[in-house]
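## retry 2 of 3
previous attempt timed out at serialization; input unchanged, resubmitting
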Amino acid sequence: MLKIENLSCQRSNDLVFNDLSFEVSKGTNTEIIGSNGSGKTSLLKCILGLIEKKQGKISWKQKPIEETRTFFLKSCFYQGHQLALKNNFTVFENLKFSHSIFNSNEEKIMSSLKEVDLFEYRERTSSDLSMGQLKRLAIAKWLLDEHELYLIDEPFASLDQEGILLVSSIIKKLNSKGCSFLFTSHTSSNIDSREILLDNYS
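## retry succeeded, writing output
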């Protein structure tokens, strides 16, 4: 589905990673593990076309991604370090705003909030939530619509053990529907995935 071949990326004049190759198949997970500055976020942004690659090839469904960028972007969901939540909106309003993008109905919004254990906080302003709760709210966006590929920067950061188990179960549920995940982390998440140590490609 997504194929990376001999990919290299640089930040300013510094080579971030070099000669990286892997493939993400339908319904599977690929975990990019690396230390700070190893290029985890740069890799996701390179795939999305937000930064230019130095060399190598990125393919989506056997076509160069440059030829199918619009279709690719419609098929994937990206969530970076910035959770893209509006602090002055309530929990419900944040998802309703996303609903206008993903064309989800109100029933889907409520179902998503229940799944991440935030239904009782639906009228609370996002600025009043803890970091763990904000992460759960961001994760609820995954459930508003099903995407072929999820590109997620450190989905387990700022979560307690209960939150980690919740995210793992949601990923597994989406996998069962054919959705794939490419996500980053500092250490192994112990989720069923192919692990790639990005520090080996510096």
